[in-house]
Amino acid sequence: MRATSQFAIFWSFLAVAAYGQQVQAIGNIFKPKATPAESVYHVSLLVMAVCAAIFIVVAGLLTFALVRFRRKCGDHREPAQVYGSDRIEIAWTVIPILIVFVLTMATARIVSATLDKPIPSDALKITVVGHQWWWEIRYPAFRIVTANEVHVPVSTTANPAITFLGLESADVAHSFWIPQLAGKTDLIPNHPNRMWIDPKQEGTFLGNCAEYCGTQHANMRLRVIVQSRADFAKWVAGQQQNAMTDAHIETGRSQFLSLSCVNCHTVSGTAAIGTFGPDLSHLMSRDTLAAGVVPNRVNNLREWIKDPDAVKPGSLMPNMQLTPEQLDEVVTYLSSLK
Ligand code: CUA
Q1: Counting C-beta atoms within 10 Å of the first and last residue's C-beta, which end of the chain has fewer, N or C?
Q2: What percent of the chain has pLDDT over 70?
Q3: How many Cα atoms occupy the beta-carbon half-sphere of 194 within 13 Å?
């Protein structure tokens, strides 16, 4: 029985490790790259130090008592029975209260400093809307709408760049979490929240929805792409263009526009103006499909449109029952949207 349960534990560890190899790991909170994440990191170090000290004291006293007071050979006397000690009882009440007080104050200081950050007039403002199970990303000042990937400029000492994120939800509660950039903030229906980041290093930072929001909660992935100012400006200019239209994909384009895809998706400069699903105007400029489930490649796009449920079970995108010809034309068109 005991050997069986040990084997079960061993195999579960192995399964978790193997799964960890498959999924793209989200960022490490111990390598913060923005001010709010640094604050979280510092508080977590304090909490861990206090917990480690408590552990050492308790485990040390326990070990000492076990060794020092164990029954000696041939000694059958009952040990002295001790009832109550005012001094010890006061100590184990007052010390924990002091510890909790210190941790509360340290946390409250960080929370209020992060929440009360004033918004500078030149700050970049982005609106993030959580949907089951993807992220809508809007840049109102640039009139850009995209999905699952947030592009922001890097913040340097010479050129500080703070990005403010307004957080909203289209359906249920979600939570925006990029561990290396900031703590979690919930997206609550009808209650806008906000957070800010000042990423100090260029690169791609991964995150995930951090509030259970339905079957595909774990596949509601996020990426923040931190770019130099020049690269960010280039990305903005590209996204502001209308969707590309090549003469040779005209058939695919009219095929797409004749289908009910247009009720849920927008392609700028066309009759497709649906807003229930992600904006597809620059679909191929994104790294992944279905909020990080598969890399954004033509074959994956084809599988996704053919049967969304096979790629992301429970997905709210319906199977459109396209014929192979329709599927080819729609994929040709969508994969031209750079
Ligand atoms: Cu959205 Cu969990």
Answers
A1: N
A2: 91
A3: 16
